[in-house]
Specification:
Elements (H helix, E strand, L loop, with lengths): L7 E2 L5 E2 L20 H10 L3 E2 L4 E2 L1 H19 L1
Antiparallel strand pairs: 1-2, 3-4
């Protein structure tokens, strides 16, 4: 499963999972570079990133999505 997800590879052959959304002002853009893909995926899961099934997005982007939903709900009530 993990080989189907997007990964970034640095010059040292280490892997990182990119944030899929990148919509938050303070988005971290990518996770920590790790020795292999499995370790990189474990890192984002340990950091509570959200899995979309097609990738992962960071906590900051998840918070931004929730703020956007709250703003839409507030606008509908007005």
């Amino acid at each position: 499963m993990s080989d189907e997800l997007p990964y970034l590879e640095n010059d040292d052959g280490e892997y990182s999972v990119p944030c899929q959304l990148k919509i938050a002002e303070d988005c971290v853009q990518k996770g920590k570079f790790c020795g292999d893909k499995e370790e990189a995926r474990d890192w984002v899961e340990d950091e509570c990133w959200i899995s979309s099934g097609e990738g992962h997005f960071c906590v900051q982007c998840n918070d931004q999505v929730l703020r956007n939903i709250a703003n839409l709900a507030t606008k509908k009530m007005i």
